[in-house]
């Protein structure tokens, strides 16, 4: 049963060029982990994914890649998402969404929408399935993080989890937008950014912060279901830059990969 939502819908406007601007307000459930006055990138990317998914859909095409660049703090409260086509095409098209709050750009997302065809005769994956979430225990390890978004999650963990590498499964019972059903795609995309906190390469208490500046998602299969599996590796370089990488799973198997570039900053 859906108990509440990450966002409240306010307004939507479409101009003469087909550019769509939607206005929302974040709730406590979208609260971030680094700052109580910001939104977590996971639900923020989920609400952007919702706008991208419903923007001028075309039969026989699907989203193959989403890139999110994070310009700065994602302020809580009211914000807008403006979506437009920036590279039209018959078989591929590039769509852009810009999220703004307090008259500042927070996130710019770009999607490649690609035509689909039956390639089953050459299909093959190197990424392997992992243990189904029904066979794993609940995990309290994510409670190290504060914020309303993290509190909204249901988390399960593989017993081989360790610092720097591990498999966790995530789900939640929140609507993305109050009063609206969310697709499986939006539900899952709205949790991918959590990968950066699932296999932290430090023991508590952290001595370095490691916020991500982007989120890149590549989808070799369109996902379904309500559980997101994150097979995550976190790596730190020697010059203040790190990388969090994850193989993405739904209950049917692997469906893509994500990458997040990290800025490593000494705390205290």
TrEMBL record:
The residue ranges of the Acyl-CoA thioesterase-like N-terminal HotDog domain are 32-114
A Pfam family annotated for this chain is 4HBT_3
Origin: domain of life: Bacteria
In this protein, which residues make up the domain named Acyl-CoA thioesterase-like C-terminal? Answer: 164-262
- Its recorded name reads Thioesterase family protein
Q: Which organism is it from?
A: Paenalcaligenes hermetiae
């Amino acid at each position: 049963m859906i108990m509440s939502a990450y966002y409240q819908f306010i307004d939507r406007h479409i101009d003469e060029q087909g550019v769509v601007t939607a206005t929302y307000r974040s709730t406590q459930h979208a609260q971030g982990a680094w700052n109580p006055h910001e939104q977590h990138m996971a639900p923020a990317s989920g609400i952007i994914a919702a706008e991208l998914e419903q923007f001028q859909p075309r039969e026989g095409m699907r989203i193959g890649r989403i890139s999110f660049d994070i310009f700065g703090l994602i302020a809580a409260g009211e914000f807008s998402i403006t979506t437009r086509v920036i590279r039209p095409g018959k078989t591929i098209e590039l769509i852009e969404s810009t999220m703004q709050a307090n008259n500042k750009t927070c996130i710019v997302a770009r999607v490649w929408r690609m035509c689909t065809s039956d390639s089953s005769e050459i299909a093959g994956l190197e990424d392997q399935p992992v243990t189904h979430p029904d066979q794993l225990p609940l995990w309290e390890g994510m409670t190290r993080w504060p914020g309303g978004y993290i509190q909204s999650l249901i988390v399960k963990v593989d017993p081989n989890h360790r610092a720097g590498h591990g498999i966790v499964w995530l789900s939640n019972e929140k609507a993305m937008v109050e009063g609206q059903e969310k697709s499986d795609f939006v539900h899952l995309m709205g949790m991918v950014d959590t990968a950066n906190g699932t296999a932290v390469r430090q023991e508590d208490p952290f001595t370095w912060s490691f916020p991500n500046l982007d989120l890149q998602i590549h989808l070799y299969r369109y996902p379904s279901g309500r559980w997101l599996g994150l097979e995550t590796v976190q790596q730190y370089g020697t010059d203040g830059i790190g990388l969090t990488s994850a193989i993405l799973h739904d209950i049917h198997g692997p469906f893509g990969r994500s990458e997040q570039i990290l800025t490593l900053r000494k705390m205290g």
